[in-house]
């Protein structure tokens, strides 16, 4: 009865508009208090203990650092320089700017690892450029939102860091390596419908008349940004630093590029950058800590085992259960942010991974890829909200375009489901 109450209280608060973190924490605390009436050992001291335990994990230190890296590179103008370099490579013409937007967003994923941050950074540059070239605002917002969704797959990824904390045996380096090829596959899947739609509907007719940036000049200007993922990922692979230490190195590298090389960041800008990164990091980490209370309630109230047994005994089999789980995650992604989905449902799904002997790294990539699709699937897609705000267009205007991109990325997810080696080959090759 108390276990059912846990979900009823949580869902009621969510429908009432209570923030996701508060709903998780209050529902868990309420059920702990009720259970305490019958069992003395199950006291309310579990609330502060699990609040701290949710945060007291070393890999989580990387989250505020990578969020700060995204803010620094956003302010330093790296995205604009990468766009010029990409345009210099692919040239001008119908459908080329959407291709550039997706490519640059994927590359930015190798710096910040945050979808909304990349949607803001790339959208601020690309949506205006696409508008000047004659692309509809709804289409531009759809492309940027879909492209930014690949960032939680391409390392470094905040989502993979959270997943590694929740799942024993899923190391951050292995998840980072496993996410690279599926992230690239998802980006390529987005490029096909984006370019096809642009050419089919005659978009970007003014694009060919715009000047093409000189290659060598744009390469020199973009070189410092191009070197950032090499430093972050190469340093981890060479063993120079851990993923958490890599995030700190990336912060200082970004400050050096912004303040010394490009001189686009001044001392006065640091306060705004730190405040912006601090606010976003605080939101993420508070949700993580409050989810620790919810997860403790799930496990101690005995919710997980009955749910697992009911699913296992449903007769659907391993493949049927996996497809059902992915469909559920896709629907949830339309309404909740990715971190919240992982925190709520991964503890419930872990027993299924053990029972069906799913590879935890492969399942992590599938989970994050499905959540990524939800980040730009209407009606409550966070990336699409950011891109639509930048494009100054209602989200309803993106639907006819964004559903094609959702379909393409879903095909990429099904390919990773069918051929696990797309995700597992690289971590096995690297010895993770």
UniProtKB/TrEMBL annotation:
GO cellular component: plasma membrane
Gene Ontology molecular functions: transmembrane transporter activity
Record domain TRAP C4-dicarboxylate transport system permease DctM subunit: where: 7-421
Broad class of the protein's primary localization: membrane
InterPro entries for this protein: DctM, TRAP_DctM
Compartments where located: Cell inner membrane
The keyword Magnesium is assigned to this record: no
Top-rank taxon: Bacteria
Topology in the lipid bilayer: Multi-pass membrane protein
Residue intervals passing through the bilayer: 53-73, 85-108, 143-166, 172-198, 219-240, 246-265, 277-301, 321-348, 360-381, 401-426
Keywords: Cell inner membrane, Cell membrane, Membrane, Transmembrane, Transmembrane helix, Transport
This protein's record includes keyword Cell inner membrane: yes
Quaternary structure, from the entry: The complex comprises the extracytoplasmic solute receptor protein and the two transmembrane proteins.
Physiological role: Part of the tripartite ATP-independent periplasmic (TRAP) transport system.
Family of this protein: Belongs to the TRAP transporter large permease family.
UniProt xrefs under NCBIfam families: dctM
Protein name: TRAP transporter large permease protein
Species of origin: Comamonas denitrificans
